Amino acid sequence: LWLAHKYGRDEADAHLLSEWEGYLGSENFHDLIYYDYTDKEQTFDAHSYNKGGAVLHMLRYIVGDEAFFTALARYLTDNALSAVEVDELRIAFEDVTGQDLQWFFNQWYLSTGHPSLTVNTDYDTVAQEVIVMVKQTQDGRQMPPIFQLPTWIDIYFPGRAQPIRQAVTVDKRQQEFRFPSTQQPELVVFDPEHTILAEWNIEKSDAEWAIQFRRAARFLDRAMALRALAKSELPELDQVISAALADPYWGIRVQALQSFTQAQFKPVHYDQIRQLAAADPHAEVQATALIKLGIQGDEQAVALAKEALKAYPYRVVNAGLTVLAKLAPQQGVAAAEKLTPEERKAVLSGLASLYVATNDPRYLDFFRTHLSEVNGYEALSFYDKYAQLAFLSGGENLNTAIQQFRTIAMDMGQSGWRRFGATKALSEIGNNLSELVEEEGNQSAQQQFEQVRAAIDAIKQAETDPQLRGIYEQF
């Protein structure tokens, strides 16, 4: 709600997609109202948050905004300062709407799982009917075999600006909807508001996906179309890519940059990408465009990367440093020297890429100094690059890195990201040392390999996080 209010519907829908993916990618599906937890922390999972928000979003579209907000206000007022169960929420919505909503709460709150939907369309030229076929394919032994799903179907016709919207309810395992039409549609979109939480298999031709990108209004329409067209050889793909790179929503521009291959991008697209790298108003788009040009070795990539170092968004500066690390490390080092200490601290990952590309051991001190200042995914990348440079330097420099990684990994006061990053870096060092021993019989490498192996064994014993212990068994 807030994202839609503040930034628009596209931003809200992109967030909803992220929430869906977080839930669908989770393990151990259980009822949304869950009583079988053994630890209170188990209640703070992708069901309570991701699925919970998505279910309320569906309910909002089923009852409408006026009833939704009125019912929420009633629920809060009637149950103020008291403990509640899910039935109180259902009763508030039923009182306001006059509807029996037991079916909705039973399947979404009090049952496990979600529907898996296969949707395809056809046109019966004899009967002159648009046909939409919907199958529910979820495992009925693990979750409801049939979900009741009120939604709409949008039917698009050539020459008609707006689609015809038909209200439908899916309430069978396999269902066919037919709509009279003297004209064959060019596109049919099932659940056009994209509110149903489900695993989807939507069967469309590449030509239909291209029309969907061009004509359907929602972020998810465009995002699904780009995903489906990523390996397409459709003749009109050039127009789709151009439109995606110029899309008003930044997330679609990023997806376009990431989805298509060098062979699919034409010179006109690279002109657009250079413009995005130079001046897109959204930092993520500008940074992604820079990286894309760097990967392709574009003739203007180095100049654009140097300009990026003057940018304020540090995401863009990091991208510029990464491109320079790949294409012109020494120029990048010279340009990086002009950054202020505050700026340098904000772009540690970019500087790490740059310094490891030089293969110069004098930059090892940079890594040693900042080991405790990185976290999350940045820590994994930073530690990996430190390990690479330390291994190339060898000798005491490598011994120092091994000891630093061991110290971090065994310190349960460090974040899980740092502990994992340090252990992973040690494992990579160990793999590289093992190859040296096998290929050259290097005795010094053998001693350092034993040092690494002993460190990882000690880390496995010291680690208290069960998930990390499981991962460490691979090392």
Describe this structure in words.
It is a single chain. The protein is α+β, with helices and mostly antiparallel strands and about 475 residues long. Among the domains are: about 1-110, Neutral Protease Domain 2 (Neutral Protease, domain 2), CATH 1.10.390.10; about 115-205, Aminopeptidase N, middle-beta domain (Immunoglobulin-like, Sandwich), CATH 2.60.40.1840; about 360-475. The chain has 23 helices and 7 strands. The protein has helices at about 1-5, 10-25, 45-65, 65-80, 85-95, 100-110, 205-215, 220-230, 235-245, 250-260, 265-280, 285-295, 300-310, 315-325, 330-335, 340-345, 350-360, 365-370, 375-395, 395-410, 415-440, 445-460, 465-470; strands at about 115-125, 130-135, 150-155, 165-170, 175-180, 185-190, 200-205. The strands form 2 sheets. The chain has a 4-stranded mixed sheet, with no helix packed on it. A 3-stranded antiparallel sheet has the order 4-3-6. A hairpin with a 4-residue loop joins strand 1 and strand 2 (about 130-135). The mean pLDDT is about 95.
